[in-house]
């Protein structure tokens, strides 16, 4: 059974721009939802046997669990790999670790 850990919420300007330059974010500061206070985005690590995994199926499992909890608390949650509302396997930018809180 995987363990999930929130690894990032708010990002300051230097961190956001550094992640953008590395290709790990689509946005420069202050365009990311991570740059708001309180943050409207967070990243999660999936840990199996003490090691972070990038297994897509583990993140799909997490997303299902997270969305059920979000619904129970009245939170509109979007997973990073479904942001374009397209078929998940067709997307170029697979952001498995990223979740956003969608404010109405």
Features of this protein?
5-stranded antiparallel β-sheet; alpha+beta; single chain; Muramoyl-pentapeptide Carboxypeptidase, domain 2
Structural topology:
Elements: E1 3-8, H1 13-21, E2 41-48, E3 51-53, H2 56-72, E4 77-79, E5 98-101
Antiparallel strand pairs: 1-2, 2-3, 2-5, 4-5
Number of helices: 2
Q: Architecture, CATH level 2?
A: 2-Layer Sandwich
CATH domain class name: Alpha Beta
The geometry reads as globular
Stretches where pLDDT is under 50 for at least 5 consecutive residues are none
Structural class: alpha+beta
Q: Tell me the domain tally.
A: 1
Q: Terminal Cα separation, in Å?
A: 34 Å
Mean pLDDT: 90
Q: The CATH topology, please?
A: Muramoyl-pentapeptide Carboxypeptidase, domain 2
**Helical content band:** 25-40%
Main beta sheet strand tally, sense and closure:
5 strands, antiparallel
Question: Can you walk me through this structure?
Answer:
By secondary structure, the protein is an alpha+beta fold. The chain has a single domain, classed as Muramoyl-pentapeptide Carboxypeptidase, domain 2 (2-Layer Sandwich), CATH 3.30.1380. Strands 1, 2, 3, 4 and 5 form a 5-stranded antiparallel sheet that branches.
